[in-house]
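Next up, a specimen:

>
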Amino acid sequence: MRWSILTFSFLLPLSAHACPDLQSFYQYDDDVESQIELESALAPLMSECLRSPEFFALYGAALMETGKLSVALEMLERALLLDANNGSALIDYAQALYLRGQLFSALDLNQQLSQRQDLPANIATLVAEREERWRRDTRAYGVQLDVLAGFDNNLNGAPDPNQITLTLSGEPVILTLNPEFQAISGPYLNLRLGGQFQQLASDHQHNVTGEIRSRISEDAASDLIQASAHYNYLLPKRDNAWQFGGGMSHLFFGGNPLYTAVDSNVRYQKITSRSCTRRYELAGQYQLYNDQSRLNSIESKLSAGLDCPVQALGLPTLLGGELAIVHSAALKDGRPGGDRLGWQFNLAWQFPLLGGMLTSQLSHTELDDQKGYSALLDDGAQRWVKRSFALLQYRQMLQPNLAFMFNIYHQNQHSNIELFDSVDSTLELGISASF
């Protein structure tokens, strides 16, 4: 439509060139009310000024000031089609692009303006100042502090049964677990401090995140501290995106280092015609256990998932699912059970509720050892483990930078070797502050 109107304008009779002198229209003030009046005064002159870049530049600027960005961009584009060097239209066109969210297009145009030699000193200063201001929008920093109090019925991750069956000399022997190896329940305080940095470019994005998390309870032997850092490089396009990432984490349990993990991943996302996003990911993690090197392993996961916006009770929600194949390769021959192979299914759902956001996650994992776990347990049987967990989280903003959080978590793990049967349930609430 835009091109047909412009073509038509060149076929108009000579009377179309009789655009009046526009100097009087520059007397309007910069406030919104005055710009609305200017817009109303200019609109009837459209048919007379179809070949006037000055008219379209002035009209586009007034439309931009009154918040009509789509029409403003069209008018400013027409001004530039008639006169590509129109400085006023270029300055306002860059501003309109920025307000429309097209940051890098605005930056490119503003940079072109800064290289012009005919800019008045005050305009050159304005262009330089907004260049610096807009550049700041390509970088984002954030810090988040979560403080939650909760109750856990299995702080130490102990097995569910209080006694286990050992195989000694081919005979089953019942062994009652020492109380310190049985499940310990109690209240705890969960603290999390996280930070993130985001660097945007026209065709890629850098994301860096770091986190320190601790859980403190009356049972000091169950306290944990975890520190992690990750980097992601994102290549977004109109209908797909690639992401490459890596990072590491370290876990202390009961005051002692438990393990260190180094991970990497590559993910491809594809937006389908139905607005769903398909994703495929290959991830690997090197797991180093500080005091039990025979447990060291490399775990890899190949997954495919789908995220779809759906309507539920008339409200927009997000539903996602993922299916993955998991393989854990032992780095030493002495690891109990040897290599492990299995699968995992994840389901997530976000739903707006009572002014906040309700998030639910369901996960089920099954792993099978490729060798017998131990001659002392079930006479050396190959172990299998089935683990399921459910997480329900509610988050509501109290202030722009402060949110209330409520979490419920339940995990159930079952195995043919009873030592690996466990149940863990937690409930916690607290606040999350961002800076």
